[in-house]
Design brief:
The chain is built from 16 helices and 16 strands. It has about 425 residues and is of the alpha+beta class. It has two domains: about 250 residues, BirA Bifunctional Protein, domain 2 (2-Layer Sandwich); about 90 residues, Rossmann fold (3-Layer(aba) Sandwich), CATH 3.40.50. The strands form three sheets. The protein has an eight-stranded mixed sheet. α1 packs antiparallel against α6 and α6 packs parallel to α10. Bound molecules: adenosine-5'-triphosphate and magnesium ion.
Length: about 425
């Protein structure tokens, strides 16, 4: 048997309603908030990710799916969407064409990670990005939007919104040296990866999932206590706006995010109910990214929601399933089938979900068992006799009531009862 690739999962029909529910709800909210959809390719030149996410991050160092195409170009399956959206913004000069730069995107992402509950190699994200505005009120709006999405999905009580500020070109280097000093004094307690990170990318140590490293970093200096005056003001103002909007949050100085492009506000929606994989969504401000990728100096802020993890939470809250067929057509004999098939089509085109038994030699009993199985609300039973008389029998599967309806009036009958 040929199996799916490890970490790549089929989303089967019974799970689809959860994904649809999430995607449709989020799209509805975002359209109301003035966001427009953008669709970017799955494959990009590898530089798109190396230059944005950063060469010393886990994603670029070990998680990327790369390939060489037949023309010898090195490409990568996108591990996240922000880099591709920024590439598209620059390439299409969207900042010159669109008066409002608010975009959303949803689709599969690919990372070579160790698969476990809530961690896949192909997973789905819903992305939101805003460009061109650097104001605390916008940061608060974006963070609030994330919370409102969870609220509208009915799962806000399963998450905690945690927020931090990573400083700027002025204060971050000062903090970095404080952190390096601290980490050097605890070096022997850190994991192998963190010993390496310490020199190349010390903030990343705060993001390590290893329990011993976590223990050490609890005592580390906290970035939000070492911000310059301007960053402190900006952070405070953002939190003020969140208060005005009534959004609950916690300040968590350990949030640094796994991608290098973040500057300023960063945030995560954390859940304790989905195992070790606790972030359901995450994001932050990235004011240098567009310029670093060769574009004009345009600031940006955004977040990504992990759909698989959001589905895990949604399943705790409610059952989402697709609607059962309304009408099942039991047809006994060739003549009945020929008479009923155009009616089945007519009803379907009027938006009434119908199924018909194609094997008209099957007994009435076996056809009715099928009507039960598919949970149809009505069964329409037609045999040779009924066709001759121009009538058919409609059975309400719940109340077991039966009545005769003229075949020519069947469409109107269901339009009436389904109204
Ligand atoms: P984690 O700390 O779980 O590795 P991350 O910081 O790498 O997450 P981001 O790059 O910020 O994640 O992606 C945003 C969201 O996408 C995450 O909060 C999570 O919900 C989801 N996500 C990330 N990686 C995976 C994965 N391998 N499988 C499923 N969902 C994922
Ligand atoms: Mg990760």
């Amino acid at each position: 048997m040929i199996k799916a690739v490890r970490g790549f999962k089929d989303i089967l029909p019974e799970e689809i309603p959860y994904y649809r529910f999430i995607e449709e709800k989020i799209k509805g909210i975002l359209e109301n908030f003035g966001f427009r959809e953008i669709r970017i390719p799955v494959l990009e030149h590898i530089e798109v990710f190396e230059r944005s996410i950063g060469n010393t991050t886990d994603i670029v160092e070990k998680e990327m799916y790369t390939l060489k195409d037949k023309g010898g170009e090195i490409l990568a399956l996108r591990p996240e969407a922000t880099a591709g959206i920024v590439r598209s913004l620059i390439e299409n000069a969207l900042h010159l064409k669109c008066p409002v730069l608010k975009f959303y995107f949803s689709g599969p992402m690919f990372r070579y990670e160790r698969p476990q509950a809530g961690r896949l190699r192909q997973f789905h994200q819903f992305n939101v990005e805003v460009f061109g505005i650097k104001e605390a009120s916008l940061d608060a709006e974006v963070v609030a939007l994330l919370y409102i999405i969870f609220q509208e999905l009915g799962i806000e009580k399963h998450i905690n919104l945690e927020i931090n500020h990573l400083g700027c070109k002025e204060c971050r280097p000062i903090y970095k040296s404080l952190l390096i000093n601290f980490l050097s004094s605890k070096k022997e307690k850190l994991c192998k990866d963190c010993k390496r990170r310490m020199e190349r990318n010390p903030l990343r140590v705060l993001d390590c999932k290893n329990p011993e490293c976590k223990e050490v970093t609890l005592q580390a200096p906290k970035i939000c206590e070492h911000l310059c005056t301007e960053c402190r003001r900006y952070f405070g103002e953002t939190l003020d706006y969140l208060n005005i909007l009534g959004i609950p949050y916690t300040i968590n100085p350990m949030i640094v995010r796994g991608l290098d492009y973040y500057t300023g506000i960063v945030f995560e929606a954390i859940s304790t109910e989905i195992g070790a994989q606790s972030a359901v969504a995450a994001g932050g401000r990235y004011d240098n990214l567009v310029e670093d990728m060769g574009g004009p100096p345009i600031p940006g802020i955004g977040f990504a929601i992990g759909e698989e993890r959001a589905v895990m939470l949604l399943k705790k809250e409610k059952k989402v399933k697709e609607e059962d067929p309304r009408v099942f057509f039991a047809v006994l004999g060739e003549e009945a089938k020929r008479t009923m098939i155009p009616i089945v089509f007519k009803l379907r085109l009027k938006g009434i979900k119908c199924e018909m038994e194609h094997d008209c030699r099957k007994s009435l009993k076996s056809q009715m068992r099928k009507a039960d199985k598919i949970k149809a609300k009505y069964a329409v039973i037609t045999g040779e006799e009924e066709v001759k008389e121009g009538f058919t029998i409609v059975r309400n599967m719940e109340s077991k009531e039966q009545f005769k309806v003229k075949i020519e009036e069947l469409v109107r009958f269901f339009e009436e009862v389904e109204r």
